[in-house]
Amino acid sequence: MFKTSFVTLALVAYAAAQSTAPQWGQCGGIGWTGATACPSGWACQQLNPYYSQCLQGAAPPPPPATTVAPPATTVAPPATTVAPPTTSAPSGGSPAAGACGAIASTVPNYNNAKLPDPFTFANGSTVKTKNDWTCRRAEISALIQNYEAGTLPPKPPVVTASFSKSGTTGTLAITAGLSTSQTIKFSPTITFPSGNPPANGWPLIIAYEGGSIPIPAGVAKLTYSNSDMAQQNSASSRGQGLFYQLYGSTHSASAMTAWVWGVSRIIDALEMTPAAQINTQRIGVTGCSRDGKGALMAGAFEERIALTIPQESGSGGDACWRLSKYELDNGNQVQDAVEIVGENVWFSTNFNNYVQKLPTLPEDHHLLAAMVAPRPMISFENTDYLWLSPMSSFGCMSAAHTVWEGLGISDLHGFAQVGGHAHCAWPSSLTPQLNAFINRFLLDQSATTSVFTTNNQFGKVQWQASNWITWTTPTLT
Ligand SMILES: *[C@@H]1O[C@H](CO)[C@@H](O)[C@H](O)[C@H]1NC(C)=O
Questions:
Q1: What's the pLDDT score for residue 98?
Q2: How far is CA 226 from CA 62, 188, 256, in A?
């Protein structure tokens, strides 16, 4: 009897262990047969059709997408004439009006299965100088908005802010509007270090949905509820959220550009609020997974971001569309462009026209990341999840790296890719590399930031630079 009871108890314990996934553990996704429940205080949230994860807090999970949307069968013709998108009010590094000549926002008849050359303008001219890069960056901004991200509106006429603080928690109440009678309000919270701020104020990291990197001492953190700005529950979320209450539900901005717009308004608000004691010259941005895609967009488009830190952003982030498709075609079940436009509203409806014919896209995400240059960025990736398309991230960032190399500042662009940890759980082995970038670029300390590493765990594919990178890196003068 004793023995039988023991076995029964052991079986019950075993079943319980099997039915509850651990903290940060996988709890669902295509092909998943393991536990689907999460520990108390943790909720199973779908990150994409391949992966649901136990995350802290009881936020309701988005409606489960049980099937991957089929590829669109009819592809609309490419837009041929589109007014050049207006970008956010530039600061530092943007070309003076007229300094660049006409900026192309379309490249008719573009056809290139390899990665587009960062050092050749749409009109065929070569990028030779650092000033040329400023103009090429403006061109890339227009191309990315037009082809995949939607329009990023400039600073609206009304932006006001007030600040309150209790203990080490501050609240920045922001009003933004097209007129005083047509406004939206949002109030991100800031967690401050204790003690007195440096003379120029605290450095700050804007963390999409709170982020998942360890914030070092001496740096404040702002929690940005980007999903309130533009919802990202599913492919049915388009046009929902604060941004669209202001600009209208049919505005062409995708969730990505709507989120960037919100980051820019946060920085506007901090600039006009000295009481917050934030050093607006030392603002970083981070986010993980879908919010890592968003953090990269913010760093690319908002030049007041001093350090960009996307974490496990994968396809739609620091991976390239073309490389992710190559991974998919060769047996890695990755999240590619076709899947992404069916899954959520991160990119514009116009991008649907290109996901089936990526060679016609005159940009890719090595160019999105290169828009951060000459400012610094480091991205982190996780090879334990093939849907993050690990070869694509490494190859894409290797291609982007040539821009920082051409500018003579290769140590301002970092990349680190390891496995052995759950998606968005921070691997402590990478803390020194993260802190090196934060110390140097937000805390004004000296640090060595030459970080470019991978474990080469790319599933069924390998990275072959010569198959994708057709340019030689110039020395920009
Ligand atoms: C090509 O476009 C760039 C960016 O607008 C411009 O600076 C350059 O002068 C153009 N080159 C020619 C030959 O038109």
A1: 61
A2: 15, 10, 9
Single-letter amino acid, residue 74: T
* Beta pairing, strands 189-191 & 202-208: unpaired
Which atom of ligand 1 sits closest to the CA of residue 123? 1
- How many angstroms separate the alpha carbon of residue 406 from the centre of ligand 1? 19
Pocket test for ligand 1, best of 94, 100, 119 (most atoms within 8 A of CB): 100
Amino acid occupying residue 476: L
Q: Which tokens belong to 233?
A: 């529950």
At 164-174, the pLDDT tens digits run 999 999 999 99
The answer to whether 91 is a known catalytic residue is no
CA dist., res. 476 & res. 234, Å (int): 43
Q: 75: how many CB neighbours lie within 10 A of its CB?
A: 13
As given in the structure block, the two tokens for residue 201 are 């104020």
Q: What distance in angstroms lies between residue 112's CA and the mean position of ligand 1's atoms?
A: 21
- Cα separation, 131 vs 253, in Å, equals 29
pLDDT, tens digit (0-9, with 9 covering 90-100), for 332-373? 999 999 999 999 999 999 999 999 999 999 999 999 999 999
Q: Find the 96 Cα to ligand 1 centroid distance in Å.
A: 15
Name every protein residue with a CB atom under 6 angstroms from any ligand 1 atom.
100-103, 121, 123, 125, 135, 139
40 included as an active-site residue: no
The closest alpha carbon to 149, from 437, 404, 345, belongs to 345
Q: Which atom of ligand 1 lies at the shortest distance from residue 101's CA?
A: 5
User: Could you give the CA distance from residue 214 to residue 195 in angstroms, rounded to a whole number?
Assistant: 19
Can you tell me whether residue 290 is helix, strand or coil?
helix
> Which protein residue's CA is at the shortest distance from atom 13 of ligand 1?
125
Contact 69, 235 (CB under 8 A): yes
CA distance 318 to 195: 36
B/e letters for 152-188, b = 16+ CB within 10 Å, e = fewer, are bbeebebbbbebeeeeeebebebbbbeeeeebbebeb
Contact 407, 373 (CB under 8 A): yes
Considering 237, 289, 315, 379, which one is annotated as catalytic? 289
Q: Please count the other Cβ atoms lying within 10 Å of the Cβ belonging to residue 459.
A: 16
**Minimal-distance CA residue to ligand 1 atom 4:** 100
For the entire predicted model, the pTM comes to: 0.86
In the chain, % of residues over pLDDT 70: 87
pLDDT at 267: 98
Compute, in angstroms, the gap from residue 303 CA to the centroid of ligand 1.
23
- CA 230 vs CA 38, 113, 281, 288: distances in Å: 27, 32, 26, 17
The string of pLDDT tens digits covering residues 296-305 is 999 999 999 9
Give residue 4's pLDDT.
Answer: 41
